[in-house]
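Q: Predict the assembly, please.
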Amino acid sequence: MSTDTATPRTATPEDDGVTDATHAPGGSPATGGFDPAAMTRLLDGRYAEVRALVRSNLAEYASVLEDAETMSRADYRERVKDIVLEMAATGQTGMGFPEEYGGGGDIGASVAAFETLALGDLSVLVKTGVQFGLFGGAIQQLGTKRHHDAYLRPLITGELLGCFAMSETGHGSNVQALDTTATYDADTEEFVLHTPTEQGGKDYIGNAAQHGEVAVVFAQLHVGGEGHGVHAFVVPIRSGGEACAGVRIEDDGLKMGLNGVDNGRLWFDQVRVPRDALLDRFASVSADGAYSSPIENPNRRFFTMLGTLITGRVCVGGAGINAAKVALAVAVKYGLRRRQFEAASKDEEQLVLDYGMHQRRLFPRLARGYAMHFAQEALAAELHTVLTDQVEDDTRRRELETMAAGIKALGTWHATDTIQECREACGGAGYLAVNRFPALKADTDVFTTFEGDNHVLLQLVAKGLLTNYAEEFEDLDSLGMARFVAGMAVDTVVERTSVHKLLERLRGVLPGGDDEGVEGVRDTDYHLTMLRFREEHQVGGVARRLKRGIDAGGNPGVVFSEVQDHVIAAARSHVQRVVLEAFVDKVRGLPEGELRDALQLLCDLHALCTIEDDRAWFMEHGRLSAPRSKAVSREVNALCRRVRPLAEAYVDGFGVPPEMLRAPALVDAYANATRTAPGETH
Amino acid sequence: MSTDTATPRTATPEDDGVTDATHAPGGSPATGGFDPAAMTRLLDGRYAEVRALVRSNLAEYASVLEDAETMSRADYRERVKDIVLEMAATGQTGMGFPEEYGGGGDIGASVAAFETLALGDLSVLVKTGVQFGLFGGAIQQLGTKRHHDAYLRPLITGELLGCFAMSETGHGSNVQALDTTATYDADTEEFVLHTPTEQGGKDYIGNAAQHGEVAVVFAQLHVGGEGHGVHAFVVPIRSGGEACAGVRIEDDGLKMGLNGVDNGRLWFDQVRVPRDALLDRFASVSADGAYSSPIENPNRRFFTMLGTLITGRVCVGGAGINAAKVALAVAVKYGLRRRQFEAASKDEEQLVLDYGMHQRRLFPRLARGYAMHFAQEALAAELHTVLTDQVEDDTRRRELETMAAGIKALGTWHATDTIQECREACGGAGYLAVNRFPALKADTDVFTTFEGDNHVLLQLVAKGLLTNYAEEFEDLDSLGMARFVAGMAVDTVVERTSVHKLLERLRGVLPGGDDEGVEGVRDTDYHLTMLRFREEHQVGGVARRLKRGIDAGGNPGVVFSEVQDHVIAAARSHVQRVVLEAFVDKVRGLPEGELRDALQLLCDLHALCTIEDDRAWFMEHGRLSAPRSKAVSREVNALCRRVRPLAEAYVDGFGVPPEMLRAPALVDAYANATRTAPGETH
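A: Predicted assembly structure:
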């Protein structure tokens, strides 16, 4: 085991250990350790300039945070639309589109811009996502040149607003089972779009209730009596503010949040569109009704189509991670201002951030916020490369899809959990709209459902792990997966993950188990090894359980249902391992110095919290002794105390524009410090 | 160990174990097992009639759920006020007041009424709580006959609306440190109320922004230059809709939820009130300025005053527990309607409630909902007895206060957690206002902060445990407690909880530890013993750590801060033990039959989930072997499968009026079944 990484790494002026006990925490906190502005530059990375543009746009339209509270829903929707169009004019929202249509030609930049926008009003964010990510992305990815020529330029400027009409009332996660149909009529060379059932109405569709003029509609294609699965069509839905003939539109009404976005429902009654309305990159229908596609297998075709829309998933995860930064910044700053109860001193009440429990509530989430940021950065970079270079390597594309699903799930849960804890940490003040949490909480809540329910996405992750991203990957629904795993691929997985093999590989690296000591508890290689062991063990276990159940003659679906919590756990372990590796890689790649020290401290805290959260599993599987498990918890507490004097610098490092923090009474005393950081990065 | 309780206990038609694997869960669920209406009668208990009245009032004013979404904030506030007054006219809100003033003279009934009201619009609930619980309760408990004569009758009818002005911007949980002053002027025989600082303004005060005419104001009493601590005064704040002279009022503005309640801020600028404005049950000031009190110790006096207001805490916990029932009912019913993905069958998509993971998400929370209900019932009964019989036993009163704090904390966290999980389990539909979750989530969010931040309340619980409810109990802030524990009482606690003693007492009852087997994993005595062991061990551990730290010369406040997570864990363990005991007592007291079987199943599930959640601790402390820990998790899954066919009956048993479920598209297909249950209980 490596020992050099176990030595103290940070520039914090406090020692950990017993001396802390004699250091009165009520005293003035040391804020040194590192330069927050330098941290912001590091976090901004390659796209510092893009992020600076978005921050400046956010500051310019900061009043929308108040408009969200004071305007009627109708006015707020208009206001949000206007802001989106004005931001579009700065180039901020078109960065992912080809330059020949007025875009920026840089997918990574478009993700960075979107993520950063999540520091502000989230209706503006989601309206942007609907127009440029979902609608624009579908035209760009599923369409061909004639669609690009017709739609890209006006949609990039916002002259043409559109919808992405995929989800139906009856079908969200299971897109392959949509009800809406598109039947080709060779006589007129038209497709007939139709909603056969009330539950088949498109639902929760952004831009549908008010502003959208066209929609990319996903429907079951039928040609000459034969079904070809789900395809996408450009369908006019509104003209001059009125629904087009045959289109019924309903407003989704008041939502928990995001009320600046006009979500609605769409039903089609035999609506006819010309033959070239089919977005035909992956399949086309000839004038006389011959269906053709370069991808023969219908399942594979469907998942290839969906795969091109992956950017949306990456963006939602990044948005959750960034929204959580706002909550962390407000709560940490409030904790450095709010005093309550005499504790360490009779003369003065204690800063709430000096309470051990308060640190426990906020700092592990702060550390996870950094971890998720770097994991998201790595994911976005891979997305950029794969899409920009049109990488054809199937395995690599599937790994990217898996990771996009995993980071989206963990990133959005991180947001829900962190925003809630930060609200509670601000007490009654956190309940007032002016202090940001109400909007943050209500608006981000649905992120766990956007782009697929998080549990369904984790199953997708598990699918990749269990099938080794096999060719058959894309054919497998839950049922198919259970059968598949029980059949061919399971032997490989079982072999790869046999406990014997795992232990063999890990010998000499992994302390714990028989080791009662606490040595090396902060060793990064130890953390990585623990998470790798857990992942392999769980994936192998799932495979074996599925195989055993099906070999015993069980219904594959029932077997799967009974193993489902294990499947989800394995997927989560995989994603957590990848997140930690991203954090470790980042830290190890930095030059020595105060930033590296500061990040190593958070990386240690994040790794140990991840292990601590699941220490029951590690004990159950002999990888953690009881004394060592307790040592992990003690170390988490000790690390929290070392984070404490740097806490404000860490949240300032996020570079949240001060206008986005709002919460004047909660963060005011610290506003100067905050204002420095982003200013210096512009 | 008792074995007879380990045999199957329920009338469910399914066996657990391997046979489940061959039973296709997509088939029509068995709904038998027990009669939901009988369950509702059982849950309603002694106050079935009161609860029926409230349910019928809720149904009559069901339109307020929609008004909350469609009305302006100003109109909604008026609407809520009107409903509260109309409900008052039915006697529903006055049940806790003496009959001679037009009240119902039954404290238990008033708690039952309030809890049940939480099934509906929560602004109506909180406005009711402000007027009758907080304002009315303060007049009743802190005042004497002249105050009762002057105020009780008009406040019970709602003719006089009032505020409970305790919290300040700068002080919430630490009430003893309030800034507002009340200085006695013997020359005019008046108290002068004054807010010396901006942060000393009363904040988050319900009824303050619009409707309140008087306020019970908590202020530091100064008489003849001497401070006597916090006392309460009746102060006119508004007349004819205008703020009284010297009173500055500000609206708290938009909140996350509860926007039908007019929360506001109050500042006093040398406001004079007559001498009899002091609520003088516990202290009085003579005309010439002599202060006297039957309770000599100022701290003790303060906590005795606060102690009389305990009903509010009991009510908030009960409200959280009941609000969570609404979320569980909607989510379970939706899970029985929503199908997604073919899993067990190629012909039909699977009901989402048949997925193992979905059961894992909802059923432990369903079981906890029942557990919390019975714990709350026991708490409310004890409250009723202690207050009605004016029990003088100090230890019993302190135990009641401790338990009120503990159930409030766990009950409101249960609400936050359950509502969130249920929302996510309903996907995008859960995000729409019409489907109830947005209001449930936003309105209940602040319950974790009401009546004291939950972490502060758990510290209060720990205080009781650590000091054995000693005489000094009430003198101890965090600082004092650390010193006290390190001093006198710790030896008792340490002695009582020495591991040796614990093991001695538990020998022969507690399997596990050395026992690798799974025998008796569903034995109720085993569950109870596990939770008792954990509590005693943790309480003893905290006491020893505090003593060690202070003996080593540490600053008591710092020592306390470092042990704080352990303190909170011990308190939580205590409350969880009490909750489980309440559930077990309830089940054991029932006659044999289908209701008892059904509740035993949930009780088992709740107990095992509680152990599973903290299985790391049990393993760390040698009370659970790794194989047995895994057996606990397997058993939880098996119990979830047995709960599945009864799930709808369990949520129907809650007796939520169908009008309160709303969510037409989510629960419609099951509305008939729902409508039966409450109807039969009226």
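Chain B has 24 helices and 13 strands. Residues 129 and 312 of chain B are 8 Å apart (CA to CA).
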